Amino acid sequence: MTAFPNDLQIAQAAPIRHIKEIAAKLGISNDDLEYYGKYKAKLPHKLINDAVWPEHHLILVTAMTPTPYGEGKTTMSVGLTDGLNTIGKKAMAVLREPSLGPVFGIKGGAAGGGYAQVIPMEDINLHFTGDFSAIEKANNLLSALIDNNLQNKKHSLHIDPRTIVWKRVMDMNDRALRHIMVGLGGTNNGIPREDGFNITPASEIMAILCMSQSIADLKERLGNIFIGFTFDGQPVYARDLHAVGAMAALLKEAIKPNLVQTLEGNPAILHGGPFASIAQGTNSIVATKMGLSLADYVVTEAGFAADLGAEKFFDIKCVAGGLQPEAVVLVATIKALRHHGGAKKAELQTADVPKVLAGLPNLGKHIENIMKFGIRPIVCINHLPTDDAAEIAAVQDYCAALGVQALVSKAFAEGGKGAADLANAVVQMIERKQNNFKPLYSWDEPIEIKIERIAKEVYGASSVDYSVKAKANLKTIHTLGLQALPVCMAKTPKSLSDDERKLGRPENFAITVREFELAIGAGFVIPILGDMMRMPGLPAEPAAEQMDLSDDGVISGLF
Hints:
Elements: H1 7-11, H2 19-25, E1 34-35, E2 41-42, E3 57-63, H3 73-86, E4 91-95, H4 100-104, E5 112-113, E6 116-119, H5 121-125, H6 131-150, E7 168-170, E8 180-182, E9 193-195, E10 197-199, H7 204-211, H8 215-223, E11 226-229, E12 235-237, H9 244-250, E13 258-262, E14 267-270, H10 285-294, E15 297-301, H11 306-321, E16 327-332, H12 334-340, H13 353-371, E17 378-382, H14 389-401, E18 406-409, H15 411-414, H16 420-432, H17 447-459, E19 463-466, H18 468-479, E20 510-519, E21 524-529, E22 548-549, E23 555-556
Parallel strand pairs: 3-15, 3-16, 4-14, 4-15, 7-10, 16-17, 17-18, 19-20
Antiparallel strand pairs: 1-2, 2-13, 5-6, 6-13, 8-9, 11-12, 13-14, 20-21, 22-23
Helix pairs in contact: 3-16, 6-7, 6-9, 8-9, 12-13, 13-14
């Protein structure tokens, strides 16, 4: 059995290299680096080469429906990047930045794991280069301008407070802030109204940052943010509050991608961090294009499972950015297959071939979903110490029957060499040129058709229902002329359906669109399925309780 490394072994695995050494591997001059200490730097947009990036190879890492503890997409993404470099390819990872919500909540650190992680891990997980803080400030500046305008007698836009949809944000799990009242305490403190906080990765500013391809594009999108209606029913946008210039100024540095490294000294870009359950769930377009300009192979990931992150990556990001992914790695764990096969929490660490067999239809559905986009995936079994050889064989046999290769990756325990077989398989698939990416729908199709296609073809639903509120929202969408925008579905990541209790591969179910949110600046509309939380809460035993800072400044508990 492969020995899994402990924290000390990981910390001593390799000396962290000065960021200029990592940049030199990519041909980036020292003059183009904006240093944030010795081990991380901002990169200018001029490094994007439109004549080069379309010729290089984009690889997406996605997953089967996850358990609450995650199935290791980031670990496998970093491992695959190291594996590609191990077999002699010039490759880099282009990933999202972690949110403090999950870091302090259930998952702890979110920068990969074992010998397959990006470093400096503590910096990446805690504040990093300040991008999330800048997004918070830009978001909350707009909130402040809205409330200021409500009581501005000289320059009032006559916004109806009951129609305001813009919320404040904070990058922390804090359920007490979901629904609040603001403006209390008398006339000097504003107009009383209901408000609330979303978590920063759910902010439209985050989505806008990741969709914008230049400062001019950023400013146009910021101006298009929908706020609400006036008392006479006219729509109000951020540009009407003259908010764009100041918001863009706050995002001046945040729009630049961040360069770091893997434990094996290979380059990685981290930029943006929208959640996939609510937003598009993938890093910025500029970061992806920059990676493709600097390396022959780029490994990126999309949040949660293929029904959420991958679908949005394909139908929103790739279409908007003109990206052409050539390979998909679909991550699975034996533990998750046991979970979807009906294993209870206490049984998840115990080998059980029948439970794995019962859980395989969930993996099968995600395989089918990727194929709908013209790509045959490679299944990556993220190896865990409790995996049994018979269980792994069952997965490989099941995948082979579907015409899909399933390989075991030991990147967590072995780094790049543990992902070399996976890397070779990905390169061979790309070189065979058998995949031909195509989106699931055309943006020009009606909103209802786009929703139905995702619900039926990707989720496996039999029908789509709309609440009274959702039907009213659809009328607003048509009134505002937003029919040609893509849809960014918001639903639970715990099931293919909109009911987290339906595990495995549910069938003969209807999904219900409860309401719509408008992310006009980001460039999509958001159908809300079921009860979605845009401000998570902490668990009974938060990961934060295990973290500490020693007298000599060393952080522990983030692994």
